[in-house]
Design goal:
Layout (H helix, E strand, L loop, with lengths): L8 H7 L15 H14 L10
């Protein structure tokens, strides 16, 4: 599963403390997956709908 993420474990460990822990509202999705999707779109220039489902 780690091959699906753009960020390695070390990189994610540096970013994770900045992610909000508790917020009211709907349930949060996996932050690492969301950030990896953002990085993928920015690096490849594709549209959100063209991202791989994984």
């Amino acid at each position: 599963m780690s091959s699906l993420f753009w960020l390695g474990d070390v990189q994610w460990a540096m970013i994770e403390p900045f992610m909000p822990k508790t917020q009211p509202g709907t349930r949060r999705v996996d932050d690492r997956r969301a950030v990896s999707g953002i990085v993928h779109v920015l690096k490849s220039g594709c549209r959100w709908q063209d991202c791989p489902s994984a």
